[in-house]
Amino acid sequence: MAEAPAQSLEAGEYPPLRGFKLVLLTIAIAVSSFMEILDMTIVNVSVPSIAGSLGVSPSEGTWAISSYMLAAAVVQPLAGWIGRRFGEVRTFVTSIVLFVIFSAICGFATTMPMLILARLMQGVVSGPMMSVAQALLLRNYPVHLRGLALGLWAMVVILAPVAGPILGGWITDNLSWPWLFYINVPVGILAALASWWLLRKRESQKVKVPVDIVGLVLLVVGVGSLQFMLDNGNEQDWFASTEIVVAAVVSVVALAFFIPWELTDPHPVVDLHLFKRRNFVVGALSVSVAYFAFSGINVVYPLWLQTTLGYTSTWAGFAVAPVGIVALFMAPVIGKNIHRINLRAAPTIAFCIFSTSLYLVSTLTDQASFEQLALPRLVQGIGLALFFLPLNQIVMSGVSSRELASAAGLSNFLRTIAGSISTAVCIWMWNDRSDYHHGVLIEHITPDSLATAAYQSQLAGQGFSEGLSFAYIERVIGIQASTMGANDVFLMLSVLYLMLIPFVWLAKPPFGAAGSGGGGH
Question: Is 499 exposed, middle or buried (0-12, 13-18, 19+ CB in 10 A)?
């Protein structure tokens, strides 16, 4: 079929790509998006190894996760403004190149502060990548295939967190943790070259507007202070620390001024007027809360398997990875048929699946088999595909082509900051509940306890001295307390998914999006 002449389109708009070029663009954008999201989860199962190598605690090691999410979260809502100011194609390719450079620096890191700084910069340059990638994909696809484009994009978004633990575990066990970052270098270079070759003459319309310095500073200070509080709260006993209190106050004040400033500034860095749209609010907040719970599972689960159940990084990766096996095959099908799907019923089913599977996980003990640990993750894959795509379609309801990057950026910002908050909150809750259960269990270990005496006698029969028997009992109690603490976290997340269900039904049909094709009712 002949393409429409470019001159009949608005400035900055081009005929859709077709054939080989469309396939190559899809691969380039998929690879770059995969790489960016992969770096959010590839470190998860490797935190103990990284922490040990750099001489810090596993809790401090999680900064390698949250620092990346912080920086990406700060920049993501700016994706629309950056894309308009410098052009979406140039923004996308530049982001990939800089991401490759800072990935290499992460691999060279010899101290935790150096790694955190490199991860922060990696997050900064990756911030616009995901949102602009989504906009470029939709902009260059034929309108009738945009649902399929979203499905393919979602497949990558789903696969990357799944591949992260497996790839991260294998690399950590068989190579060394710096290779978690070195693998981005060849992949990123190829994606950047392909994207520039295809899109260099298809640049979006640039709009030179004044820089909203005040809004930008308020955003960076507000979100940065929030993340500092979350990162350091566990180590400094939260609000018992003056630093944490100051960070909390600064964050609240900065964000409180940021909102009215952006709503009244003629050239805001973040278009908060999108929140006037009911479906954007419902969709973006639903995705964010669901992702909060999903991130909590992805952080606590592999850490529990390694630090408590004795799993290696590789086997911890295999245990958490099945969540994407079903989702991987479902995403393109759902994307292609998105206009036939009830976009409120699908997430409802998904949240029921997540809630039920998490409840079952919360009943597992330290004696659980690999199958018992992996099967719930396989079931969760069904839920992942059923909520991610439909909710993103709701987010884009009525969004014009020019607003694609802004809407995607703001939605991705909320999702990313939710994941960052989840890392801190779920690790804190796990530690707190583990300490609580440890205290309760230790109360029963007394010299006059018949059960304690019988167990010590049993250990003595196996050659344990009195000192060793008490040390062994303490280790058993620690394992039980840690498992019970993890169970509490999983139960909390199970309840959270149930609470999301009525909120999803506040979305109002029709869900057709100007930028992404039709939607179901």
Answer: exposed
Residue 7 pLDDT level (bands cut at 50, 70, 90): very low
Other Cβ atoms closer than 10 A to 462:
9
With a CB cutoff of 8 Å and minimum separation 6, the contacts of 113 are none
pLDDT digits (tens, 9 = 90+) for 471-481: 666 777 888 88
CA–CA gap between residue 208 and residue 85 (Å, rounded): 5
Q: Is the model's pLDDT at 45 over the cut of 70?
A: no
Structure-token match 């998490």, residue found: 358
Length of the chain: 521
The answer to whether the CB of 379 falls within 8 A of the CB of 353 is: yes
pLDDT at 4 over 50: no
- The most confident of the ranges 59-73, 180-194, 268-282, 379-393 is 180-194
**From 250-264, 324-338, 428-442, 447-461, the region with the lowest mean pLDDT:** 447-461
What CA–CA distance (Å, rounded) separates 3 from 16? 8
pLDDT at 130 over 80: no
Q: CA 84 to CA 402: how far, in whole Å?
A: 9
The H-or-E segment that residue 191 falls in is helix 184-199
Q: What is the model's pLDDT at position 3?
A: 42
- Exposed/middle/buried for residue 104 (C-beta within 10 Å: 0-12, 13-18, 19+): middle
SS (H, E, C) 312-332: CHHHHHHHHCCHHHHHHHHHH
pTM value > 0.85: no
What distance in Å separates the CA atoms of residue 149 and residue 166, rounded to the nearest whole number? Answer: 26
Residue tagged 């179901």 (tokens) = 520
For 125-163, what is the HEC assignment? HHHHHHHHHHHHHHHHCCHHHHHHHHHHHHHHHHHHHHH
Q: What is the 3-state secondary structure (H, E, C) of 417-449?
A: HHHHHHHHHHHHHHHHHHHHHHHHHHCCCCCCC
d(C-alpha 170, C-alpha 380), whole Å: 23
Closest CA to 431 of 442, 423, 420: 423
> Cα–Cα–Cα angle for 91, 92, 93, nearest 5°?
95
Task: Say how far apart CA 237 and CA 97 lie, in whole Å.
Answer: 39
Residue matched to tokens 């140039």 = 90
What is the average pLDDT score of the chain? 79
Instruction: Compute the half-sphere exposure of residue 482: CA atoms within 13 Å on the CB side of its CA.
Output: 19
